[in-house]
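Our collaborator T.R. sent over the components below with a one-line note: 'Predict the complex.' Nothing else. No constraints on interfaces, no templates requested, no preferences about which chain binds where. So this is a plain run: every listed entity goes in together, and whatever single assembly comes back becomes the starting point for the next discussion.
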Amino acid sequence: MAVDSEAVRLRRGDPEVLVSLLERYQHRLYRFLMRMVHDPATAEDLFQQTWLRVAENARRYDPSRPLEPWLFSIARNAAIDYLRRVRPESLDETLPSGDAKIDMIAGAQPSAVDVMMGQQRSSRLADALGELTPMYCEVVTLRFEEEMKLDEIAEVLEIPLSTVKTRLRRALDALRGKLEHRLPGGELPGWGPQ
Amino acid sequence: MNEHERIREQMSLAAAGALDASEERELSQHLASCADCNAEFEGWRELGAGLRRLPTPQAPAALVERTRAALVAITIERREQRSTQRTMVWLILFAWTTILATWPVLKLISSGAASALDLNFVQTWHVLIGITIFGWVAAGAAAVFLGLRHRQERRLA
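Returned assembly:
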């Protein structure tokens, strides 16, 4: 009920609702944009553009539909517009790994073993994820980091559910291939708790 | 494609929690009886767990503050624009209504209600129709001009 009333207020362009959404989704949208463009300065520009587009399109939001896919589709469109304009080849080809240093927080409370072993693995995994094309990267991050359902991902990407599954499978195959390629023995290391 | 290959194709989606119930059941049954596939799936599960635990880049506080200020400014501006547009529409409607209202008033002032069929009054009607059309076109042109100017101001802002 609270979400419905928030949606209606959003349609009216209530600044309080927009600010409350900004506070709630700031890190998730920024993370998504970072995964898409791999550059903090660009992600910041796109973050602002995304929220301005949210404000501009608030009246067109359909309150009967879930809010998250709508927000992420706006962020995704901003990122795709940018990539088409600046790096059109990146939409088809593999990106180099980004070396940008940015502030990070752990996704979950790490154990002592995670602290020892996890950082290097996470770094390798993040690098490999950064090498995926935006088309694969977005589907992986929406599923694993944003924990969206497949039908929500389909809504964000504006593709059929079956295509989401195909794209997710190919993305994970490519990711695993890149990880194995980076390792001396060509074997996937243990990523889970030791 | 044999059973092992078919099952291995499903493993990445299983790690993503994207299999339906029957596919999930089939995978579990196969893994319970196949050590090789089980070992392969372990790698996928660990990859999935690693992806879920990736560090989250934090949106810088200054960026969030700038965005908050921009959001508040843009919503206030939008409200003012909508209010101006509403006022403009009402003013145009009022102008058109006023022009129309002058007809019966002029008719009464000029020669009374009985002169409606008078030849001279028919000529007056033509004049009034001309004035009305001119008034409507002028108001419409003013609205278009104001709209274009408003758009130009927004582009420059």
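Summary for T.R.: The CA atoms of residues 139 and 185 of chain A lie 28 Å apart.
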